[in-house]
Design a protein that fits this description.
The structure is a single chain. The chain is mainly α. Helices cover about 75% and strands about 5% of the residues. A hairpin with a 2-residue loop joins β1 and β2.
Length: about 110
């Protein structure tokens, strides 16, 4: 979806879209010199609209929230990779890892 389609779909001005891209809140792909927005961009834009229009969050708040969301997604990807690597280990290694995780959970009171 190009800039114009994206703006129409979300009912936002192209100037607003430009600011969001400049801020790094949206990271569209570039194809043949034009931006191409995907479903993830639409979801992020809808969140930005909810934050700014419905919740009154200012630009600094949106910047912080989007950064935290990106960190959470990165951590989830890392956890998936760790779990995949753990599944490839033999039974003894898995047992030791799970035992250590149980110990840590008990120490934190979880």
């Amino acid at each position: 979806m190009d800039d114009r389609e994206f703006g129409r779909f979300l009912k936002i001005d192209v100037k607003v879209l430009e600011v969001w891209v400049e801020q790094g809140w949206l990271l569209p792909q570039t194809r043949d010199g034009a931006r191409d927005f995907c479903e993830a961009d639409v979801a992020r834009a809808q969140l930005i609209l909810d934050l700014t229009r419905d919740m009154g969050v200012n630009d600094a708040g949106v910047d912080l929230i989007m950064d935290l969301i990106d960190q959470i997604h990165g951590l989830r990807a890392t956890l998936r990779e760790m779990l995949a690597a753990m599944k490839e280990q033999d039974a003894e290694v898995k047992r030791r890892i799970l035992g250590k995780l149980d110990e840590l959970s008990e120490m934190r009171g979880l």
